[in-house]
């Protein structure tokens, strides 16, 4: 059922939608919701709502796993009334997507409501995002991260940086407009490259002193303004480990919510030499690893225990991090070379 859009879209648009795949229907419907406050206001009455409290997502424990459940519009309405809030508060929600049946999905921060009472009533816990990311199934984390990132952006962009006047969110939350001069602000992400450098049969993993003990990962760095993806890869590899990049191959991307929204652009790169010159202001340690060593590091599903000599074995970020994807991809490629 095309519930979210029924009776709201023009007949012409609705006819077009019937010819499209559900993916295209959803994309077009979301476009209308983002752009048109009236359509979005209607969708609020039928949509579902993911809950946050001071940016901590609401999780429910079911047996040995956790879910990130949504409440219906009428359930949210009831919560607001019971906590003596105006139903207008529903309009503080931000749009984060829509279901396969085109029912709009929103996120709302209930930080002004009593947390422990809400948790008891809803039967779950508002959980810090980092902890929640590790508790939830990997496939459920992108929606939660996206929702938190958008709520966080709105929370920190209440005023225009040019006029100092308040900014007003449009209903979907796809932008904020300065009440003084009409300047429009859109949610932002910082582009970051993450590169798995390799040379012959080994790959390079590094760690910063702020990482948990034993954790090594691929090199990463924020793009400077005006740089291309390729230029950032070359500069970061040179800056952090003193190596000259020979070739770059794009792999995949990921939205990363920590500490602020980044768009992680993941690449493989080969280098011309292997002698490292580590920039200790940025990196605590960087080492070349063989296939066997990387396979060993991948075996740890969580932080490994200390060994008898007090050291922690090398391990790599969990599956939810794109670093893990890059490392797995390299392992697959090395294994396939062995077969050749
Ligand atoms: N999802 C994943 O697999 C991984 C994600 N990351 C993320 O990548 C990001 C960048 O990693 P680093 O190697 O530390 O970057 P980096 O090597 O560029 O160094 C960080 C420094 O860059 C500067 N900087 C420039 N632009 C910045 C911006 N827009 N925001 C914050 N700092 C900025 C700051 O001085 C900061 O201290 C971090 O947010 C980290 O969480 C890092 C590794 C793996
Ligand atoms: Mg870095």
The end-to-end span amounts to 51 Å
CATH arch. level architecture of the largest domain: Alpha-Beta Complex
- The helicity comes to 25-40%
The Rg value, from CA coordinates, equals 23 Å
Quote the CATH topology of the largest domain.
Nucleoside Triphosphate Pyrophosphohydrolase
Strand content: 25-35%
Overall 3D form: globular
Number of helices: 10
Give a verbal description of the structure.
The chain has 2 domains: 22-156, Nucleoside Triphosphate Pyrophosphohydrolase; 190-338, Nucleoside Triphosphate Pyrophosphohydrolase, CATH 3.90.79. The chain has 10 helices and 16 strands. The chain has helices at 11-19, 22-35, 37-46, 73-82, 115-122, 129-135, 141-155, 229-241, 291-298, 322-339, and strands at residues 48-53, 56-62, 65-67, 70-72, 94-98, 104-109, 125-126, 167-169, 176-178, 184-185, 190-199, 202-207, 219-222, 245-256, 262-271, 285-289. The strands form 3 sheets. Strands 1, 2, 3, 4, 5, 6 and 7 form a 7-stranded mixed sheet that branches. Strands 11, 12, 13, 14, 15 and 16 form a 6-stranded mixed sheet that branches. Strand 9 and strand 10 (184-185) form a beta hairpin. Helix 2 (22-35) crosses helix 3 and helix 9 (291-298) packs across helix 10. The longest helix has 18 residues, at 322-339. Mean pLDDT is 92; it is low at 1-15. The structure holds 1,4-dihydronicotinamide adenine dinucleotide and magnesium ion. It comes from Xenopus laevis. Its EC number is 3.6.1.22. This is NAD(+) diphosphatase.
């Amino acid at each position: 059922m095309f519930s979210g859009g029924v009776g709201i879209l023009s007949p012409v648009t609705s006819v077009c939608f019937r010819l499209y795949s559900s993916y295209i229907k959803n994309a077009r419907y979301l476009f209308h919701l983002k752009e048109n406050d009236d359509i979005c206001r209607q969708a609020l009455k039928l949509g579902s709502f993911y809950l946050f409290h001071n940016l901590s997502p609401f999780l429910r424990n079911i047996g040995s796993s956790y879910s990130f459940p949504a409440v219906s519009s009428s359930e949210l309405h009831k919560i607001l009334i019971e906590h003596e809030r105006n139903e207008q508060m529903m309009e503080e929600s931000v749009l984060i997507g829509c279901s396969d049946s085109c029912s709009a999905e929103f996120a709302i921060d209930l930080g002004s409501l009593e947390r422990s009472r809400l948790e008891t009533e809803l039967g779950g816990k508002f959980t810090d995002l980092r902890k929640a990311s590790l508790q939830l199934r990997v496939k459920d984390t992108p929606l939660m991260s996206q929702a938190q990132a958008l709520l966080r952006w709105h929370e920190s962009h209440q005023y225009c940086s040019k006029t100092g006047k308040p900014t007003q969110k449009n209903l979907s939350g796809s932008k904020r407009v300065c009440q003084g001069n009409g300047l429009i602000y859109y949610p932002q992400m910082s582009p970051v490259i993450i590169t798995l450098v390799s040379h012959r049969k080994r790959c390079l993993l590094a760690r910063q002193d702020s990482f948990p003990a034993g954790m090594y990962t691929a090199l990463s760095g924020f793009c400077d303004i005006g740089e291309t993806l390729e230029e950032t890869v070359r500069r970061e590899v040179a800056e952090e480990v003193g190596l000259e990049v020979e070739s770059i191959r794009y792999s995949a991307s990921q939205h990363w919510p920590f500490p602020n929204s980044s768009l992680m652009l993941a690449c493989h790169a080969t280098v011309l030499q292997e002698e490292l010159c580590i920039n200790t202001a940025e990196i605590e340690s960087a080492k070349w690893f063989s296939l066997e060593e990387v396979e060993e590091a991948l075996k740890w599903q969580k932080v490994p225990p200390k060994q008898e000599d007090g050291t922690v074995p090398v391990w790599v970020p969990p599956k939810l991090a794109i670093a893990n994807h890059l490392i797995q991809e390299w392992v697959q490629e090395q294994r396939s070379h062995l077969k050749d």
